[in-house]
Design brief:
There is one protein chain. This protein is mostly beta strands. The chain has a single domain (3-251), classed as 6 Propeller (Neuraminidase), CATH 2.120.10. The protein contains 1 helix and 21 strands. The protein has one helix spanning 235-240, and strands spanning 3-8, 16-21, 29-34, 40-44, 47-51, 58-63, 71-78, 84-90, 98-103, 109-116, 119-124, 130-135, 140-146, 153-161, 168-174, 180-185, 189-194, 199-205, 210-217, 223-229, 248-251. A 4-stranded antiparallel β-sheet has the order 3-4-5-6, with no helix packed on it. Strands 7-8-9-10 form a 4-stranded antiparallel β-sheet, with no helix packed on it. The longest helix has 6 residues, at 235-240.
Length: 263
C-alpha cells in the first residue's frame, strides 16, 4: 500500500498535510461509506463490496445489474438506520437506465427508484423523515417521505430546481437547520438552498470548475469538505481553474448532519 504526503487545499488558504493511502479495488469506485465494524462499504462498476482498510481484502456482497454492462454505481451514502443507499447510471450518460437501491444490514436489497440517468446527491432532513435525491440531468432535487423503519419512500415532490446558469447539481449534503448544500458541476461553486421554499440562499465560489460533492466534518461538524474533478476539461479551463481535482475545506457557521455508518 503506497503512502505519500499530499497537501489538502483549503478555502481559508491554510494548507494541511494529510496521509493519502491507496487501496486498489480493480475498478472505478462510485461511492464509499464507513461501516460500524470498521470496514468500508463500496459501490463500484460491478456491485457492492466490503473492504478492510487495514488488509486491503475485498468481499463482494452484491452483484447488481449484470444485464446492463454499460451501467455503473455512482453516488451513495448510509441512512440513519444503517442502510446503504446507492444509485446506478449509464456510463455514457445518455440512457435513463439507472436505479436507486437500498441495501439493509441483513443483506436485503430493495429498488427505490428506476428511470434514473445520472444518480447523484443524497441527503436527509434533520428529523430523518425526508430523503432528498438528485438525478443530475433533471436539474431537480426531489424530496420523498422517508420511512426510517422500513427504508421505503413515498410522496415524491420537487423541492429545488437548479437554473442552468449555476451549473449542474451533483453531490449534496444537509445541515441541522434543514438546508441543502449542493456541489455544482461546471459551476465553480457550492450552493446552499432552503428546500421548504425551493429558494437559493447562498452561492459560494470554489476555485475548481467541476465541484462534485461535499460532506460535513471536523470538530463540531462545521467544516465542509468539498471534492472536485477534471473530467472533460479543456486545457483552457484547466489553466483557468488549475486547482480543479483538488480537495477543499470550507469553514462554516452551521452544524452539518453526520455521516452515518452501514450496519
Amino acid at each position: 500500500m503506497p503512502l505519500r504526503q499530499v497537501a489538502l487545499a483549503v478555502l481559508d488558504q491554510v494548507p494541511v498535510l494529510v496521509r493519502d493511502e491507496q487501496l486498489p479495488v480493480g475498478e472505478p469506485v462510485g461511492c464509499i461509506a464507513p461501516t460500524k465494524t470498521g470496514d468500508l462499504i463500496i459501490a463500484s462498476q460491478s456491485g457492492i463490496s466490503l473492504l478492510d482498510p487495514v488488509t486491503g481484502l475485498q468481499k463482494i456482497i452484491i452483484r447488481q445489474e449484470s444485464h446492463l454492462p454499460g451501467n455503473r454505481f455512482n453516488d451513495g451514502k448510509c441512512d440513519p438506520a444503517g442502510r446503504f443507499l446507492a444509485g446506478t447510471m449509464d456510463n455514457a450518460e445518455k440512457e435513463a437506465s439507472g436505479s436507486l437501491y437500498s441495501l439493509s444490514p441483513d443483506g436485503t436489497l430493495n429498488m427505490l427508484l428506476t428511470g434514473v440517468r445520472i444518480s447523484n446527491g443524497l441527503a436527509w432532513s434533520p428529523d430523518h423523515a425526508t430523503l432528498y435525491f438528485i438525478d443530475t440531468p433533471t436539474r431537480t432535487v426531489m424530496a420523498f417521505a422517508y420511512d426510517l423503519v422500513t427504508g421505503g419512500i413515498s410522496q415524491p415532490r420537487k423541492a429545488v430546481h437548479v437554473p442552468e446558469e449555476l451549473g449542474a447539481p451533483d453531490g449534496m449534503t444537509s445541515d441541522t437547520d434543514g438546508h441543502l448544500w449542493i456541489a455544482m458541476w461546471g459551476g465553480a461553486a457550492l450552493t446552499k438552498w432552503d428546500p421548504a421554499m425551493g429558494r437559493l440562499l447562498q452561492t459560494i465560489p470554489i476555485p475548481a470548475l467541476n465541484v462534485t460533492s461535499c460532506a460535513f466534518g471536523g470538530e463540531g461538524l462545521t467544516d465542509l469538505h468539498i471534492t472536485s474533478a477534471r473530467k472533460g476539461m479543456s486545457d483552457e479551463q484547466i489553466s483557468r481553474y488549475p486547482l480543479t481535482g483538488g480537495l477543499f475545506r470550507l469553514r462554516t457557521d452551521v452544524k452539518g448532519m453526520p455521516t452515518f455508518s452501514f450496519g
